[in-house]
């Protein structure tokens, strides 16, 4: 008799019928992860299962935690450098081998997925012959590794390709990192069954074991072929559906290696046997894990996002409060979206505009969104009706009685904003939170128009509100901590991510995105081919091209802001330095009447409101033959312009947290996700052409750009000092 190997994070519970339940239950953590203890445990479990095989009738994986299994241990993974490549490869192979031994034991293995199974959790489930998901609230299933710059390396690529074919595996599971609800996981073939209760789930697991005593994976059955064929089949290439446009962009040049490695692991792995495919998967994974992009993305999308959402920036010691009834002033584009987002979170909404028709139009926007959701099966008639019943359109200020929060979204006009607050400040609750969605007006000035400036705060939403996850909270000079805490709670209540900044022109997001746009426009002024400017933005990884973005925002808006800022700077005795973009914008507007998309002509031509191509006049009036700006410089000028201004925001106290900067830049203004955000981009700067890495490399490169393109690239003192001290940007 062999000694029974022991395991610390997986409990072995065998009943009298021979069914072994493997309970995932890490004693040291709130969630199960693929840490060192798990690696040892799963190997010990495989040993024991083989040793005691004859007494086993079947195996059920389930978990004692709220989630089934959380995935890799990101605290460990972020530290893995190229020097640890072999070790990381071996550790990954160890888990794969153990799961494979259980999968091929010759006994039925069932995953009873009692909660979220993302990444490693779903990979354990994939190694099971049968997958049953409990329809628990918040339960999500999928392989989101790509969103952290990684690939699923617990057999996830190898098995999904064999389960659903290369095309579906890539598009439904691997390349987008989609997280499915149990029901949608069932519809898309990720699980076999959904159970309504834990008891039902376990009964189904038992039933499967009883009816499939000699279960095998489809790919272990003789004569198995990958569904839909493999690239060695000539028909295959024609059948691989076109990649979604954004993915194409990621694959075509943006420095974002995960989708490329996933594609390679899937395609190469499909042409070899299972064991070799696992080795290929591990190699591509190790390359990603030891590289900089995964570290950037783990930092941003895991650690920074968690810090921001959990309230690292929320004043301490103030009780959490929920808003019951909100007044939304202005039912235009933003007000209508804000009303929908609040009603979706269960808050009563009074949506006020100047007349009943305008208010009703604002509510109709919610109807439109809900009709679309209904037609796609994302909501039900009952939920649609419930949500709509929560929105009361009105033109009568008296209807705002009882509101404990106000969000103003009327035209961008200081006097009008003052007027609408005066009209309602005695109608709403006496301590109601007062928020403005202004995009450019200083909060401190707006607060002068209300009787309780201590309760007044900026709540800057992004368009379209129902889709954009970020809200920038802006503290005015007189905003109180209580108001900040309540604003923070309100943003979380509507399931959005709050960053907190201090008042300044353009706050953080609008100010910094302005630098990106100005840099692109300046290049046109230098005589660079406009199509190259657009391509540089795309290849740097920006989701929107720079000149088209300018057109969307309109060319007159930055002019207005610039003129106001110039006046304010001069009034305060400061010096005003024009940006080279200014002259280009002035010429387009003044000489050619091109004001952007809404005016029907801008950097692009428009036909029937649709973008028709870059205006040929740009080349005629601006291009200078012989001008050569290296492509790498073009990309870095855009990225650096935003990064440098963000450091200035830290210096000036507009920003107070690194996590806010990183998350705000990616989720609010499209700073490329592969960088991990605007300050992580500096931390992880990889340099080139001999300038070096990290902060010192970034400083050296900024000086090169300053010498070549202008003083605006001179590194701010804070950056230089940090580089000299060997520090990085961090909140710790
Ligand atoms: P919009 O022009 O679509 O809507 C403004 C609405 O306010 C109109 O329906 C108008 O009838 C209404 N209104 C005017 N006077 C009113 C009054 N006395 N009482 C009640 N309602 C009144 O404008 P949009 O785009 O929705 O912008 C609203 C605010 O949000 C502005 O301050 C803007 O700067 C800001 N913002 C806009 C963003 C955008 O992408 N459009 C992004 C972030 C902020």
How would the blueprint of this fold be written?
Elements: E1 10-14, E2 19-24, E3 33-34, H1 36-51, E4 58-63, E5 71-72, H2 74-77, H3 85-103, E6 109-113, E7 117-118, H4 120-126, E8 130-134, E9 141-142, H5 156-164, H6 166-174, H7 182-187, E10 193-195, H8 198-211, H9 234-239, H10 245-251, H11 257-269, H12 274-290, H13 292-310, E11 325-329, H14 333-344, E12 348-352, H15 356-375, H16 381-389, E13 391-394, E14 405-408, H17 414-424, E15 433-436, H18 443-447, E16 456-461, E17 470-475, H19 481-493, E18 497-502, H20 509-526, H21 530-540, H22 546-553, H23 556-571, H24 580-592, E19 604-607, E20 610-614, H25 617-622, H26 631-651, H27 658-669, H28 678-683, H29 694-709, H30 717-725
Parallel strand pairs: 2-4, 3-5, 4-6, 6-8, 7-9, 8-10, 11-12, 11-14, 12-13, 14-15, 15-16, 17-18
Antiparallel strand pairs: 1-2, 16-17, 19-20
Helix pairs in contact: 1-3, 3-12, 5-6, 6-11, 11-12, 13-27, 14-15, 20-21, 20-22, 20-24, 20-26, 20-27, 21-26, 29-30
The protein binds 1,4-dihydronicotinamide adenine dinucleotide.
The site of 1,4-dihydronicotinamide adenine dinucleotide has 23 residues, from helix 14, helix 17 and strand 16.
Family: Belongs to the 3-hydroxyacyl-CoA dehydrogenase family. In the central section; belongs to the 3-hydroxyacyl-CoA dehydrogenase family.
Protein name: 3-hydroxyacyl-CoA dehydrogenase / enoyl-CoA hydratase / 3-hydroxybutyryl-CoA epimerase
Pathway: Lipid metabolism; fatty acid beta-oxidation; Lipid metabolism; butanoate metabolism
